[in-house]
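Now for one protein, fold included:
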Amino acid sequence: MNSADKPTKRVLLAAPRGYCAGVDRAVVAVEKALAMYGAPVYVRKEIVHNKHVVGALRERGAVFVDEVDEAPAGARLVFSAHGVSPAVRAAAAGRGLETIDATCPLVSKVHKEAVRFAAADYDILLIGHDGHEEVEGTAGEAPDHVQIVNSPDDVDRITVRDGAKVVWLSQTTLSVDETMETVRRLRERFPQLQDPPSDDICYATQNRQVAVKRIAPESDVVIVVGSANSSNSVRLVEVARQTGAGAAYRVDYAAEIDDAWLAGAWTVGVTSGASVPEILVRDVLQHLAERGYAEVREVRTETESLTFSLPRELRSTQKATGLDLKPPTT
């Protein structure tokens, strides 16, 4: 093959990618709280699961704590985008903390579903990863009614009191395909299994998985930008591998890309999880361009326009102060 016959090194850039509306809202909430009240502002857990975002907010004065008793009595505390249980809210109130609830509205929706079905005495099968903050918060709404189903392989161990009163809910950041396989197996065991009133897996998680499915079959390698504790980022790596990518890897930063991954690769797919700022993707594109992948083609499967208003605690302050606290739309 002469040089004219060689394929061109290129990047397929998935879209949508990166920040979703819930992440944007949560990050802006911490930024606005710092601007309005000054440092320190305490945040329970990581506001979103991204190493870069958490580090940047820490530099500005956010203090991340694991539990509410690590924040001084009377301090200001932000609940992360992943949500918290009623027990955590009660503990915060007991310490006199001024709380700002940055729970993603789509997570709050699942919480309300759990409360509703528990009130009707349903067994709730919560599909999600045991130990994940979102799952802990949702399960905490109805601990006596919720069983966590980690994967399709968990289905055989599930027992319910009444097969006619059982419903499944899910963590918002799961693999759509694996979740539906879990539901299929659950329905084999419990034919009267009820679906949630509306889809629990969030629009952004689904959209990013659809986009990576589009680029994976054409990609020798897929690079997913996202942190190790980001469920939706890890799922993107899995989806890429399952749908035709030659290989797929996750990185927090461009510098983590191993040149050995690119050996023999002509097409590199790039995407990012829902808690990843676009600047990190741009750094990856620059890194790849320096290695000959100068051609970038964006592959768009959906255009997102959803935005969420800021937590009511900040909106009420906006009315009192006249400050413009609307989150950015980009």
